[in-house]
Design a protein that fits this description.
With 783 residues, the chain is of the alpha+beta class. The chain is 50% helix and 15% strand. The chain is globular.
């Protein structure tokens, strides 16, 4: 108890050093807590499944995770290693309700999917009511989550009741726990996949060429993964398909592969799912955790060793009275542990008060600690170990002078200690300059994407998703809208730019081709001002153009056709001619290169209506669009969005991650500033007599300022030389993954160095000026 009291008195005695150390650790630990919880959340995806190591997703080299549902039965029948298999398809029908709620015009939008009966044998989503083996067996069956059951029925015991989706009634056969947020599969409602076989509206999903599904499978615990995958590719039916596509898949590659479920969250989606975590960014965040730890330790050591002359003189008295060096070292180390634990306590409180705000600010999730309370003792164990490790070197350094020198006040420390301190400061600024450079390059890349001309006229364009009622009367609806002078043009399409998810793969004249397909109307090309390179555009109101195609130049180049207008492209139950070649434009994210695209003229896919507005009066015009839509569909409200916003959303994940990195960069700058502030305080105090002598001998304030600041300028220059090539290599590697990217300009690295220098000089100059303007008599009166 006496020892703890002495330690506490010592902490309070050196309150400047203790306060700066505490502040530095609070900044460091708060960042570590937030980043640790975020990274651990992203890496926890799907890990709650009992058989996670046996669950895989089927993928193809052509369309990633998008495969035909029909191949699942073949695999389960012919591959003995496969114990369970389920096809999964998203539900695109919009709202779900009940007959009673429909009478009141109440419907709910929710995430839903179709799944086969093995679904609950593969995934560990608990059913609270119903039989997990048969709940999804019969057509028109549905399993809903507890929260969705309460929303629809105000209770959860609703087995046997009915829900309505797309005019089809489904019997509730199971109630499941709400699916965890850290699951790659998200749904509040699961419909039985067998419904596809009895409902005509889903007949196209029985097509072998309809690549709109996911297939998940579970293997035997002792299965050889490579052997199982090889057996899948050796199935006769798939061998034939492999031969068809031989020309477009890499030589020696298999058509099919199986990806472990625990890797799915870190794999980009062919179908455009936004539930994807970039593993490179997660590694960056892990690196930032290490950087914050190192920077916190650097400040800790620098502050402690800067106090060495004062601490050594004080501890020498205790040693004269019989205390050995080990006890003195233990006292300093215990002080470090206590400060570290106090800092972690305050950091945890700050985290709890701020994490909701951080999640909202950067559109991320996973910062909550609920359900992960084991992190709390882990953080404090980390702080305890950190205190021991960070306090070990200062305790040795401070107690290193011989006792005879300490008692006489003639304390001399080796130059090695100061060299280590200088090296630590340089390492801090290597991190700071590197992070500033990275943040500037990331922002430059985002601006490049925002301002890139994608090749279409996207200005003043809004869009809406059509309901069944609007699609039924699509022409009358468009004609009515055009009566408003603020609406100048329209087009109906199956997809909006940036979200074309329809892929076609087929054999034409013995050559297998793979391309994106975009169902459009006759106005589409003129609406976006897309130029023709050869042939002609679709003719306005010319019904003879229905089921004809226009290919983009990328497709023509890739397929190598010399006479494209002699080719026919196979549709669902018809063949259509190619009538034109359009100029390329970026119809998807600029992260990827332009793909072969075929525009399909159709009257069948009126899923989206795009409207070009006259500049200004947007609020009134959008109100008119909604009012007109309500005339044609009295039940379903619509949402009108700007196309620019939708296109910018393609980079939302990168933008949010970039801003999060920028936030952590500011955090590390704050940590560096705290370290510099402490260092200049101790250095100016250490050199107070030298400053007094120089001033007595005629040194000016500016000369003293230069003397005090020169070391910092030298350290930052060394840090700049080290950090620049590291940042250049890292960011060049990051940019390599994008098809359209900015350049690494020299001025970015120069600006990062100037900013670091400016931050450092602003931080130290105030304290340097105070030391330089101090009356030299105060420093020399006792000499």
């Amino acid at each position: 108890m006496l020892q703890l009291k002495q330690i506490w008195k010592s902490i309070l005695k050196y309150k400047v050093s203790s306060g700066l150390t505490l502040l530095s650790l609070i900044i460091s630990f708060t960042g570590i807590i937030i980043l640790t919880l975020y990274v651990s959340w992203e890496k926890s995806y799907d890990r709650f499944h009992k058989d996670i190591d046996s669950i895989y997703r089927l993928e193809t080299v052509l369309y990633g995770e998008a495969v035909p549902a029909t191949i699942g039965k073949t695999i389960k029948t012919e591959i003995p290693e496969v114990t369970d298999l389920t096809a999964l398809a998203p539900y695109f029908g919009g709202t779900i309700s009940t007959s009673e709620l429909l009478d009141k015009n109440i419907k709910f939008e929710t995430k839903a999917a179709f799944a086969e009966q093995d679904f609950f044998n593969i995934f560990s989503f608990p059913l609270t009511l119903g039989d997990r083996n048969t709940a999804l067996e019969a057509p028109h069956s549905a399993v809903i989550s507890e929260s969705f059951a309460k929303k629809l029925f105000e209770e959860t015991n609703v087995i046997g009741k009915y829900i309505v989706a797309q005019g089809i009634e489904y019997k509730v056969t199971g109630i499941m726990k709400n699916i965890p947020k850290n699951s790659s599969i998200q749904a509040d409602c699961l419909f039985s996949f067998s419904t596809y076989k009895v409902e005509s509206c889903y007949s196209r999903f029985e097509d072998d060429n309809e690549c709109s599904f996911n297939i998940y499978l579970k293997l035997n615990a002792d299965a050889n993964i490579d052997l199982a995958c090889s057996k899948i590719n050796q199935i006769d039916k798939f061998q034939e398909l492999t031969q068809e596509v031989k020309g477009i898949i890499p030589e020696g590659s298999d058509l099919f592969s199986i990806r472990p479920l625990k890797e799915v969250h870190f794999t980009p989606s062919y179908l455009g799912s936004s539930n994807y975590a970039n593993p490179v960014l997660l590694n960056v965040f892990i690196l930032l955790i290490v950087i914050l730890t190192i920077m916190g330790a650097v400040n800790f050591i620098n502050f402690a060793t800067s106090q060495a002359p004062l601490r050594s003189k004080s501890l020498s008295i205790s040693r004269v009275l019989g205390e050995n060096r080990f006890a003195s070292m233990a006292q300093i180390t215990l002080e470090s542990v206590i400060i570290s634990l106090v800092a972690m306590t305050i950091s945890y409180i700050i985290y709890r008060l701020s994490y909701h705000c951080i999640e909202s600010m950067f559109s991320i999730e996973g910062l909550g600690i609920e359900g992960r309370y084991y992190f709390i003792p882990a953080f404090f164990v980390f702080a305890f170990i950190f205190g021991i490790m960070a306090g070990t070197y200062p305790s040795k350094y401070i107690t290193s002078p011989p006792l005879a020198q300490s008692v006489k006040g003639q304390i001399h420390f080796s130059g090695k200690g100061k060299s280590i301190r200088n090296a630590l400061v340089i390492s801090q600024f290597v991190f700071t300059i590197g992070l500033i450079s990275s943040a500037l390059i990331i922002e430059k890349q985002l601006n490049y994407w925002r301002n890139f001309d994608i090749g279409i006229n996207k200005e003043h364009v809004v869009y809406l998703s059509t309901t069944y009622g609007l699609a039924t009367h699509y022409q009358a609806f468009a004609d009515e809208l055009l009566k408003n002078n603020n609406i100048t043009d329209y087009t109906y399409t199956g997809f909006i730019p940036g979200q074309v998810e329809m892929g076609w793969g087929q054999t034409i004249d013995g050559q297998y081709i793979q391309m994106k397909c975009w169902p459009v109307d006759e106005n589409f090309l003129s609406f976006f001002n897309i130029k023709m390179d050869e042939g002609r555009a679709f003719m306005d109101k010319n019904n003879s153009d229905i089921n004809s195609f226009i290919l983009n130049k990328k497709g023509l180049e890739k397929f190598g056709w010399e006479n494209p207008f002699e080719r026919q492209i196979e549709g669902f139950d018809w063949d259509g001619p190619i009538i034109g070649i359009a100029e390329n434009f970026n119809f998807s994210s600029l992260k990827d290169d332009v793909e072969p695209m075929v525009f399909w003229r159709t009257n069948r896919r009126k899923d989206h209506l795009l409207l070009r507005l006259a500049p200004g009066n947007y609020t009134q015009t959008i109100a008119y669009i909604k009012k007109t839509a309500s005339i044609f569909d009295t039940e379903n409200p619509i949402e009108v969005k700007f196309l620019d916003d939708s296109l910018n959303a393609l980079y939302a994940k990168e933008e949010n991650s970039a801003h999060f990195i920028e936030f952590i960069t500011l955090w590390t700058i704050l940590l560096s500033v705290t370290g510099l502030l402490g260092l200049i305080f101790f250095i100016s105090r250490e050199r107070i007599k030298e400053i007094g002598i120089r001033k007595v001998n005629g040194a000016t304030i500016s000369e003293v300022l230069t003397m005090l600041n020169m070391d910092f300028i030298k350290w930052i220059a060394i840090a700049f030389v080290i950090a620049t090539p590291i940042a250049w290599i890292a960011m060049n590697k990051w940019l390599e993954s994008f098809a359209y990217k900015t350049t690494l300009s020299w001025w970015i690295f120069a600006l990062a160095g100037v900013l670091a220098l400016g931050i450092a000089l602003l931080t130290v100059s105030w304290q340097s000026w105070k030391a330089a303007t101090r009356n030299p008599v105060e420093a020399l009166r006792y000499e």
